[in-house]
Each structure stands twice: as structure tokens, then as C-alpha cells.
Specification:
The protein is an alpha+beta fold. It contains 11 helices and 10 strands. The chain is elongated. It starts with a helix and ends in a 6-residue tail after the last helix.
């Protein structure tokens, strides 16, 4: 299909990774090596937009994303990817590849309009230093949250449940439940992560009113609505966040519904 689409006006072959969607059914696609070989045979530039931009080998719930190094090793002339998503920095677009093509891109007048600002560049540099020093998986929040074990999440949920257990005396129901978390819309499409959360059924207000109250707190708390309950998925809670959650939730108990 790629070869049939080449015309005298073709300048490059572009491969785009399915970062935020998934094609299922009787489908197939060429390998990286096949595309790079075709590009060389036809004298074309080969470009791979790998999307989520993971720098570390990554496999989760049966899903794998190619690393930037794998794309370069396969022979692509240019590889593009995001600074956020699996890379874990701020929003940015990154291009790596052969020096001759990078130089041409640097000479493009539009670069001045598209380049990121100094604060974004500083954030990106700090994140890349974590990778260079081998500490990405322990310092970058996204990697920490993705790699949490179920037993750790269950323990965290039980700790939160125990802290807010006094709410039961006001007629509120609180319990630990299993959850399925989505990693996000920009990477790992359809991958569901097993974990745990705290289900709260309010007494003097509806679940929708409780959700709205939590969202309007000084530090907004985003939760899930399930039937007549609010579900607090603990995967993305840092240790210091748990007490804030408990304090704000406890403060809502006993307030009249609005």
C-alpha cells in the first residue's frame, strides 16, 4: 500500500503510531524495517511519528509501545514524539534523527513561531536528566503511577477508608472496591489497569452533589460517579495528597446539600 501510493511528487514516507486509538479485526501493517528499506530504495525520507515517546522499554497489560531508540535503530531518518504522555515532561514536540535533516528543519523560518519557551525547555531538560541518570521510573509521576502494584493500591485505599470511617456515624457509607483505571487518552489506548479505590455513598446529598462539592474545593478533587456513589481511585494520589483528600471530604460531611 505504501509503495503503491508513491508518486513523482512524494518526498517522504510517514508512519504514525496509534497512540490514542486502536484498530482491531483483520488488520496488518509493515514492520519498521520494511518501511525504512522501501524509503531507501525509492530515495525518500522515512519519518516515524511514534506519539507517546517512551524512552524506556514498556509493556503493560499486554500492550507495548515502541521506544524512540527502537525507531532510530530500525533506520528511520526522523522520529517525532511528544514531550508529555509517556515521556513525562511538559507539552512539547520533539524531533530526533539524522543531522542533515535536523539541520534543514532548524533553518525553517517557522521554527521561531513553533519552538517552545524557556520554561517548557527547562522542564524538558529536567525530565531528560532523570532518564540520563537512570532515575526516571522512581521520579517521574506518570511512571510511578503506571507501575504501582495492586497490593500497594489496596493498602492505600484501606488507609484512606480508615481515616474517613467516622463519616459512617453520620449515615455515610464507605468501603474499598476494585477499580479499572485508564492510562489516558494520549497513550496506551484501551489499556485498563486493575487497582483499588474508595466508594463513598453520601447521606444528606446526592452523589452528583458530592462530586461537584469536591471539584469546587480549594484543592479540586476529581472523582468518578458510579450509580449513587462517588468513587475515589487512589492510583494517582501521592502520599501527601491522601490527607488533603480526607480533610476536604470530612469537611463536607454535615453540610446542607446545595
Amino acid at each position: 500500500d505504501y509503495e503503491a501510493a508513491i508518486t513523482p511528487n512524494t518526498a517522504a514516507i510517514l508512519k504514525v503510531h496509534t497512540s490514542n486509538f486502536e484498530i482491531v479485526g483483520f488488520t496488518s501493517q509493515p514492520t519498521f524495517e520494511e518501511l525504512c528499506r522501501l524509503s531507501r530504495e525509492k530515495g525518500l525520507i522515512s519519518i516515524n511519528d511514534v506519539g507517546s515517546g517512551t524512552l524506556l522499554p514498556f509493556s503493560l497489560a499486554g500492550h507495548q509501545d515502541p521506544t524512540v531508540r527502537e525507531c532510530i535503530t530500525a533506520g528511520f531518518d526522523l522520529v517525532t514524539f511528544s514531550g508529555d504522555k509517556l515521556l513525562g515532561a511538559g507539552q512539547a514536540g520533539i524531533i530526533v534523527g539524522k543531522k542533515s535533516y535536523i539541520h534543514q528543519l532548524k533553518c525553517e523560518p517557522l521554527l521561531r513561531a513553533f519552538r517552545i519557551d524557556k520554561l517548557s525547555l527547562a522542564a524538558l531538560e529536567g525530565t531528560l536528566i532523570d532518564y540520563a541518570t537512570g532515575r526516571a521510573e522512581e521520579l517521574i509521576p506518570g511512571w510511578l503511577m503506571l507501575n504501582l502494584k495492586e497490593i500497594e493500591l489496596e493498602k492505600k485505599a484501606e488507609e484512606i477508608m480508615n481515616k474517613i470511617a467516622p463519616m459512617r456515624s453520620c449515615g455515610w457509607k464507605v468501603k474499598v472496591i476494585p477499580t479499572l483505571s485508564l492510562s489516558g487518552g494520549g497513550s496506551l489506548p484501551t489499556v485498563e489497569l486493575r487497582g483499588y479505590g474508595v466508594e463513598v455513598v453520601p447521606n444528606n446529598m446526592s452523589a452528583a452533589q458530592l462530586e461537584r462539592a469536591l471539584r469546587k474545593m480549594p484543592i479540586p478533587i476529581i472523582c468518578l460517579l458510579r450509580d449513587q456513589a462517588v468513587v475515589l481511585d487512589v492510583r494517582c494520589l501521592r502520599n501527601e495528597d491522601s490527607q488533603i483528600l480526607c480533610d476536604e471530604l470530612s469537611g463536607i460531611v454535615g453540610r446542607p446539600a446545595k
